[in-house]
From TrEMBL:
Residues 1-22 form the signal peptide. It comes from the Eukaryota. Residues 48-304 form the Extradiol ring-cleavage dioxygenase class III enzyme subunit B domain. This is Extradiol ring-cleavage dioxygenase class III enzyme subunit B domain-containing protein. GO terms for molecular function: ferrous iron binding; oxidoreductase activity, acting on single donors with incorporation of molecular oxygen, incorporation of two atoms of oxygen. The keyword S-adenosyl-L-methionine does not apply. It comes from Pocillopora damicornis (Cauliflower coral). Coiled coil: none annotated. Keywords: Signal. The lineage of its organism: Eukaryota, Metazoa, Cnidaria, Anthozoa, Hexacorallia.
Amino acid sequence: MFASILVVIFILKSFYVIRVDSVVIGAFVMPHGGIALDPRYFNTTNATAKAQAWLVHDASKQVGKQIDDLKPDTIVLSTPHGIAAPEDFIFYLSPRGFGFSDTDNCACPPCCYNLSVAMDSKGSENLVRILKDENEKVSYLSAFGPPGNEDFPFPLRWGEVVPLYFTKSVLGQPSKVIILSQPSRRYTESVEMIPELHHLGESLFEILQSQLEKIVVIISADLAHTHLKSGPYGFSTAAKPFDKACGAWVSTQDSEKLVVEAASYVEKALSCGFTGLVMLDGMLKASPFTWESRLLANYHPSYYGMMLASFLPR
């Protein structure tokens, strides 16, 4: 009898090890504003804003190290500023990506932040195929050649470059990247997209969870863009409560903080990252295990909010 129990325990432990090696091992929210790259070039005389910029920068480095320590095989990145289609969520189907970003108030050159990454074209193609079978609005784009076999890298910009720039696992290239671009209808229909985003997040998580590799998810997102009257989008009283609600969602993992409270402000707050956050919420809720979440930074050193957060399975 005792020997039988030991056999059962051994089988269960073996199954657990297999599952740990084949799950989403972490999810992170990272900003893509150039301030995060190097606050030395942030042109402000406001001491509080300058201090907040450094806190965002330091938190970005911290998240980058967390990702490196997890040693993911693949990083799945959602970007709101990629090459977008009006309706479909687009996966980049190329073997390589290359691009650059500027830091705020210092253009390239001299402030050049270049990034070259290996992209998982076969993984992207597989995701599109399965998600299409589940009636999700997804497609893929290739660039300058046969899909998955292009000679030239797929073009990347700040929405992808800034978050990935902090991860040495990408720069050193032991990890491949899958990039998902949010559709351009997010500009005008982000609240209407909430049920769809939740469903897509659930479907995406279930597919990723079945892969025999370690996967990290990054949501490239800035928050409200209406914190300052001098900013390009002006000032709105919706900016502060929107950012606060997003932070509360991270801390509590209460979906209503995001899809009800933050959603009630988003049309005036003007957040590029809202749809990615809602998709992530769907992924987390589809998980069979609980998550330990940490809000590492939530500031607006300039006219837009910048948040860093981590979600790790318990």
